[in-house]
Amino acid sequence: MNLVERAKNLILTPAAEWDKISSETHTVQGLYTGWIMILAAIPAIASFIGFSLVGVGAFGLSYRVPVVNGIAHAIASYLLALGTVYVFALIIDGLSPKFGGEKNFMQAFKVAAFAPVASWLAGVFAILPALAILSLLGLYSLYLLYVGLPRLMKTPADKAMPYTVVVIIVGIVISLVVGALTGIMLPGRAGGF
What we know:
By secondary structure, the protein is mainly α. 68% of the residues lie in helices and 3% in strands. The protein has one domain. The longest helix has 29 residues.
């Protein structure tokens, strides 16, 4: 699997790429080492560069997160991102039968591994904190999830939207928990240092 080609195809032709992914044979380890660990590193590294090396500034004032705190935050957010993929796969797999889909952990893991590609790629905007708002482009991952879930989990068309909405709501809760945990690593009012 060519990482760049796969990412490009998921962004530009998601339906065709999900159909291809559905029939491929993958392992959890293979997806972690050849896809997830690489792409999940983008936002973690970009945030470290942006907040610890470049700094945040406005009106002539600037602030940089201390390097040690930045590294701790990057490592924590990276490790939590890796764990979140697995938890998300468990949730997708567990909810599938409730929406008329098949229970298949590997297919659920493929959805959890490939759907966040847009958000991981959009994480690069954190390199320049002034452009971090552009990371909202990562919301395209929600559409990728919507297209991929019914294809891989064999959900009936009439239940695809409710299934996607429930998975997104659970994903938001997971994201809030992960955000709170990584926020502890940053100094200041919200952080613990």
